[in-house]
Amino acid sequence: MFKFLFKKEQQIQELISRYLDNLRATQEHFEKAMDCYFDFGLGENCDFLIEQTHKFESRADDFRNEIIEMMYSKVLIPESRGDILRLLESIDLIPTHFETVLFMIQGQKLKVPDFIAPDLRELMRVSLECCDLVTRQVEAYFKKTEDIKPLVTTIDKHESRCDHMEREIVRKIFASDLDPFEKMQLKELVVQMGEISDQADRVSRSVYIINIKRRV
Amino acid sequence: MNSLLGGIFLGWSLGANDAANVFGSAVSSRMLKFWTAAMLAAAFVLVGALVEGQSGIETLQNLTVFTSNQAIVASVAAAVTVTLMTLLGLPVSTSQAVVGAILGVGLLNRQLNFAGLGKVVVCWIGTPVGGIILGIIVYKLLAAIANSMNLNIFQSDILLRLCLIFAGAYGAYALGANNVANVTAVFVGAGMLNVSAAALIGGLSIGLGILTFSRGVMDTVGKKLVRLDPFSALVVVLAHAITVHIYALIGVPVSTSQAVIGAVLGVGIIKGVNTIKRRTLVHIFLAWFITPFVASFFALFLDFATHLRYIPGH
């Protein structure tokens, strides 16, 4: 009935929804770029998908700035503004990690040896599952569509699994007879890929803390 | 009209200081524009003074018998006390200053209504205690409602803002109903005003103080309140408003600041934290104790001074 009084709150809610849709789109393009890289190696198609991922990542920054600008025009109580701002900054690091992984592969012209390719694909799959869950969790927090606690537990389990896989892949790299420089490059790539699930876990915990903090 | 200036000044300073207790948290956190808050507060103070202010006016005017001159002396003594205590940095209660000044005049007249005075003093003790109790009750009640509603961040923010506006308006109404007696009761006692005119002039002067000089105090006091958290700030505003309104119904002007301190302590008890520093509490207690005596002294001194006559040749 009084919706017209809280137009800005509705606009922020819509912008956050669009921001999350953009996050999904960034993730989708990252996944396609990685699949393309694993299947066909670097090339025109892969470059195009990397470029697309970068575009969506940049668009996320625009959305974030728009949300911040609107929030500080006397919308929401200061505590909520701070919580949302910190949460968005934390979420924003996920697409940044996508971009870093892709730029690392593209810039350093990395070649993934066959003996770790399936493991890297699995690491990517589980990491992206973490991202799916965290997007769902953030949406659930803003819309109150489902309980967020079970999602925190699942994301945490996935993140632990990613850590385990990361260690295993690094161990395999250093057990191989690859060139030491190549080993260091691949290790860096694996660590960077592992950062995706780590960041998803950090976001998930932030959402959980913000949620319990608001209970009185 | 000139003879009412002391009272109008007292009302103005009361409005400038006490509006912060009702709308400070909403304004300093930029949830509400200052002018919206000030207009709401001024309007509701006036409504409160006109609708429920009579009871307090009758209590204070019955404490002693005034002449016109003594009414002016009492209001000026109260105003000077409030100003002095504020300069000393002590959290002063206008109600205590006014009653102290009336007490001084009553001592001169050798005519004091001890039953009425007893009722007033009991209510002074009851104000912070009432604030504590209501702070606890309101917190528990609102927390149970808020937790059962399962609102998202936007919905709960909207609800909180609406509640703060409602609680602020109610607080302003209670302030007008309770504190208008401080401003003009002495003039009713002296037969210079009738009760309705006293409520109107008192309400208008408090409103004027809110509109012209409350911005700075709202920012300072509001920030102190918001340091709790928005929900606790709402509890404090509502609990202090209920406390002050109850005393308005009883007909005894009390300190809104002491009601706020009580409510903040109540919230602290619930959350298991120290919301107020020991030093602040000592200052409040000190001011609570000495304000009536200082005002009483000023009333005696001013009355003495106004009776001094220059006799040439002596």
Name some characteristics of this structure.
heterodimer; A: 216 residues; mainly alpha; Methane Monooxygenase Hydroxylase, Chain G, domain 1; elongated; B: 314 residues; 12 helices
Could you walk me through the main structural features you see in this protein, from its secondary elements to its overall organization?
With 216 residues, chain A is an all-alpha fold. Helices cover 83% and strands 0% of the residues of chain A. Chain A has helices spanning 7-40, 44-71, 78-107, 117-143, 149-175, 180-213. The longest helix of chain A is centred in the N-terminal third of the chain and has 34 residues, at 7-40. In chain B, helix 3 runs parallel beside helix 7. Chain B is an all-alpha fold and 314 residues long. Chain B has one domain (2-306). Helix content of chain B is 82%, strand content 0%. Chain B is built from twelve helices and no strands. The chains are: A mainly alpha (216), B mainly alpha (314). The interface between A and B is medium-sized, with 20 and 23 residues.
